[in-house]
Design a protein that fits this description.
- This protein is an alpha+beta fold and 537 residues long.
- 53% of the residues lie in helices and 7% in strands.
- It has a four-stranded mixed beta sheet with strand order 1-2-7-4. Strands 3-9-8 form a three-stranded antiparallel beta sheet.
- The protein is globular, with a radius of gyration of 25 Å.
- The mean pLDDT is 94.
């Protein structure tokens, strides 16, 4: 009897231990137990938040939980979400590291700056390119100005002029694809130079193929990002949660970028760059990263924090960096152009007001000008209505509205008054919620560009400060978007060029509602607009 009871006692002990570890401790004793739960199951299981992400409802459901329970909520046994300025400062300005979640942004088997887990290698990489993405460099770059001249006047505006012919395009033109092509040509030219970049605006067949290949694979990121070990285990059993064609698409996208890198490398190595007098062909980003890698190698060699990846695999690391800029640089700005043009197409009076402001530029971008040119960057940046339209669209329809997770440091930290939060806890904020604080942005779901028109909105200085403090479209801290200045400048240039010369109206905006997730465009991935040339006064 005693012998038979020993296994039973062991089983009972193990059961009690499991109950304590997986129920009693996380629900009642864990330092996280003091934090409100987004769902009743959050302390004991990650299934609720995983299911929410799988169903593409994370942003809206997390936001609803914040509205109900406050600025800090528990999403799972080991995961938190924050939604206040103090929390943003602690997590994103306080050096909380990234984690495995970002490994999906590795390319060619090596990390890029964005996917680096730790801040020190990230900082070392960022030093190589932060100057070329600074506002002063962007505004004064002869290369970017020359590239913009060609992309806007030789590619984009002729395409839209053709699209404004009713007989050729009776149902309007699908503009989301054109905006993505425009931003691709911009970022690829800045990276590799105009001659070695892309020409999506002119090559319709290839742009449709490339953009389709890029977009379709995005719908399968959940398994690799949220459950990577489970996904890899099933692959060993020949069970593919992510279809094999996704890997094929990724390899083809990598091959396309590698070809750009190889051509640019040969252009610099073989002396062609030294003989080229066209500033548009300067590979600004590639050249800066190449110089930074060489400087790091000479200065620190094997002692460099970048030696395990960047310096050990320089060609792959360069390509990984370049494809990351290609992906982020074209998609996010393309999304913003789509939503800006959608809002403007709903309001003809706003279009007219914007056009009047744009025509004050000298030189302006009207095709009726004797010699259309790229306007002065400082003047363009200073246009209040254009800036307000862009800022409000970034607030309501941020291209990356989803959570940007970090990992709490060891041994622990304090968040929003909750002390003793252990290290290794996933914690993040999402622009979707940050931008919908009703105490800062009245009627936050409404698109209202006058929030940013300080000469008209009657805001107090305190209201302006709070408005700006809660603006989070590019994240914050040392790992905020390195290309934010490039994006702002390129978007303003494109909108200025288009609405100086055309009026637009909506033909079909079915599916314009924004997706729910990390990087989010329209659910339909389409927007059809009708373009009409502005008549000469």
């Amino acid at each position: 009897m005693l012998i038979l009871s020993i296994p039973a006692l062991g089983l009972a002990f193990i059961s009690l231990l499991a109950i304590y570890k997986f129920i009693i401790y996380p629900v009642f004793l864990s330092p996280l137990s003091k934090i409100p739960n987004a769902h009743w199951s959050a302390p004991i299981s990650p299934l609720w938040i995983l299911w929410t992400r799988f169903k593409c409802r994370e942003n809206i459901d997390t936001h609803a939980a914040h509205q109900k329970y406050g600025s800090v909520i528990r999403l799972g046994p080991n995961e938190l979400s924050i939604n206040d300025v103090a929390g943003l400062r602690t997590v994103y300005g306080g050096g909380f590291e990234k984690g495995q979640w970002y490994s999906i942004f590795d390319n060619y088997g090596v990390p890029c700056m964005f996917s680096s887990w730790h801040s020190k290698p990230h900082s070392a990489r960022k030093r190589m390119m932060s100057n070329i993405y600074s506002k002063s460099t962007i505004h004064n770059s002869p290369a970017l100005a020359a590239q913009a001249q060609v992309i806007i006047y030789d590619r984009l505006l002729p395409l839209l002029t053709a699209a404004s012919t009713p007989l050729r395009f009776p149902n309007g033109v699908e503009i989301h694809e054109i905006w993505n092509s425009t931003t691709m040509d911009f970022i690829a030219a800045y990276q590799f130079g105009l001659k070695n970049g892309s020409n999506f605006l002119t090559n319709e067949t290839f742009r449709k193929y490339w953009l389709s290949m890029y977009h379709t694979r995005k719908t399968y990121v959940f398994w690799s990002q949220e459950l990577p070990r489970f996904s890899r285990f099933l692959r060993k059993l020949n069970i593919y949660l992510v279809p094999r064609w996704v890997d094929t698409n990724n390899r083809e996208l990598e091959a396309w970028t590698q070809e750009r890198c190889d051509n640019t490398s040969a252009y610099l190595r073989d002396g062609l760059a030294a003989k080229d007098t066209d500033p548009a062909n300067e590979p600004v980003v590639y050249k800066a990263v190449l110089a930074g890698m060489e400087k790091e190698r000479k200065a620190k060699g094997d002692n460099s924090i970048l030696s395990p990846n960047l310096l050990k695999y320089p060609e792959l690391s360069m390509a990984s960096e370049m494809i990351d800029h290609i992906a982020a640089g074209h998609e996010t700005s393309g999304i913003m152009l789509t939503y800006i043009s959608w809002y403007l197409s709903r309001d003809f009076s706003l279009q007219n007001r914007l056009r009047a402001e744009l025509l004050t530029l000298s030189p302006n971008m009207s095709l009726f000008s004797s010699k259309p040119a790229i306007p002065n960057s400082k003047e363009l940046d200073g246009l209040p209505l254009l800036h307000a339209i862009l800022m409000e669209t970034l607030r309501v329809n941020a291209a990356i509205p989803g959570s940007q997770p970090r990992v709490t440091p060891y041994p622990g930290c304090t968040l929003a008054g909750y002390s003793g939060i252990p290290g290794g806890v996933r914690v993040g904020a999402q622009a979707y919620s940050v931008h919908r604080n009703g105490q800062v942005y009245a009627d936050p779901e409404k698109w209202d560009y006058t929030r940013w028109m300080d000469e008209e909105n009657g805001f107090t200085e305190e209201q302006k400060r709070e408005r700006d403090r809660w603006f989070w479209a590019f994240s914050s801290g040392g790992r905020m978007c390195v290309g934010s200045n490039f994006a702002m400048h390129e978007i303003k240039l494109v909108i200025a060029a288009v609405f100086s010369n055309f009026t637009t109206q909506i033909v079909n905006d079915e599916g314009i509602e924004q997706e729910d997730g990390y990087t989010c465009g329209p659910t339909s991935n389409k927007l059809f607009l009708k373009f009409e040339r502005v008549q000469k006064n």
